[in-house]
Write a structure and sequence with these properties.
alpha/beta, 8-stranded mixed beta sheet, 6-stranded mixed beta sheet, 286 residues, Nitrilase/N-carbamoyl-D-aminoacid amidohydrolase, 28% helix
C-alpha cells in the first residue's frame, strides 16, 4: 500500500465548539465570531461546526422557522446556507457546516453541507439515525417527532482527502462507519450535540473506537452548555469537541465553553497504520 503523497494529504483541521440556543441570528453571530478568530490566526484549512447549531432546542415551530430549503448546488440559498458559503470564500477555507435544519416540503432533516474555498458545495448528508431515547436522568428525546431520517451514505473529497460524513447519534452504529471506510474515507467528520448524560460516559470512548475500527482520522465538533427545550426546561450538551488519529489517540480537545480545537491531520499516518494492520483484508463478516 502506498503512503499518501498527494497534494492535500496534510491539512490543519479545526473543530468549532458552540453554545447555541433557539435564536438563529444569535447563533450565526456566535459562529461568525469564533470563525473570525480562528481565521485571523490562520489556524485551519478545514472548519467543522457542531450539530444543528442554527437552532438547538426551542419549539417545533421554531425549528421549522429556522430550517431552510436547500438550493440546487450553484444557486443562492437561505440565511445559514449563504453564511457558510460566504464564510468559506471570505476566509479561503473548506467549511463543513456542522448540520442545519433542511426544510423539504412539510418535513425537516438534520443535514450537513460542505463547501470549498471557492464556495462550491461539495456534498450534503442527512442524518440517518435519529435520537429517540431516554437518558439515565429520565429525560426523553424524540428526534423523529420533528426530523426525517436520511438514507444515503456520503463521502466527499477535501484537498485530496476522502472525508466521510456522519452526525451525532450515528456514532453508535459502527456499520455506518465501516461503509464509510469501504467508500474510501480517510477522515470522518462528525458534528454533534451529545447530551451531558450520555456524553460524559460514551462520547470519547465511541469516537476513539470508530477511529480505531476504521483506521480513519475523526474530527468531532460538539455543542456545549445549556439550552431550553420546547417546554422551557433546561437541557445540557457535553461539548469536549475533539480530533482523534487513526490509532485512536486524542490529539486535540476543546475545553469547556465555546471555542475550538485544532490538529494537523496527516493521511500518511492512516496509510501506514492500514499497511501494518490490514483489517479490511482480514475481515470475514461482510
Amino acid at each position: 500500500m502506498l503512503i499518501c503523497g498527494i497534494v492535500g494529504a496534510v491539512m490543519r483541521v479545526a473543530v468549532v465548539q458552540m453554545s447555541p440556543g433557539a435564536e438563529k441570528e444569535q447563533n450565526i453571530a456566535q459562529a461568525r465570531s469564533l470563525i473570525e478568530r480562528i481565521s485571523a490566526n490562520r489556524e485551519a484549512d478545514l472548519l467543522v461546526l457542531p450539530e444543528i447549531w442554527t437552532c438547538l432546542g426551542g419549539s417545533r415551530a421554531q425549528k421549522f422557522a429556522a430550517a431552510e430549503a436547500l438550493p440546487t448546488p450553484g444557486e443562492a440559498g437561505g440565511r445559514a446556507y449563504e453564511f457558510l458559503r460566504q464564510t468559506a470564500m471570505a476566509h479561503g477555507l473548506y467549511v463543513h457546516g456542522g448540520s442545519i435544519g433542511e426544510l423539504d416540503g412539510d418535513r425537516i432533516f438534520n443535514t450537513s453541507i460542505v463547501f470549498s474555498p471557492e464556495g462550491v458545495e461539495l456534498g450534503r448528508y442527512r442524518k440517518i439515525h435519529l435520537f429517540d431515547i431516554r437518558t439515565p436522568d429520565g429525560q426523553g428525546y424524540h428526534e423523529s417527532a420533528t426530523y426525517g431520517a436520511g438514507d444515503q451514505i456520503v463521502v466527499v473529497e477535501i484537498r485530496g482527502v476522502r472525508a466521510g460524513l456522519a452526525i451525532c447519534y450515528d456514532l453508535r452504529f459502527a456499520e455506518l462507519f465501516l461503509e464509510l471506510r469501504r467508500k474510501g474515507a480517510e477522515l470522518i467528520l462528525l458534528p454533534a450535540a451529545f447530551t451531558l448524560q450520555t456524553g460524559k460516559d460514551h462520547w470519547e470512548v465511541l469516537l476513539r473506537a470508530r477511529a480505531i475500527e476504521t483506521q480513519c482520522w475523526v474530527a468531532a465538533a460538539a455543542c456545549t452548555g445549556m439550552h431550553n427545550d420546547a417546554n422551557g426546561q433546561p437541557r445540557y450538551t457535553y461539548g469536549h469537541s475533539l480530533i482523534a488519529d487513526p490509532w485512536g489517540h486524542v490529539v486535540a480537545k476543546a475545553s469547556d465553553g465555546a471555542g475550538w480545537a485544532t490538529a494537523t491531520v496527516d493521511m500518511a499516518l492512516a496509510a501506514r497504520i492500514r499497511a501494518d494492520m490490514p483489517v479490511m483484508e482480514h475481515r470475514k463478516l461482510k
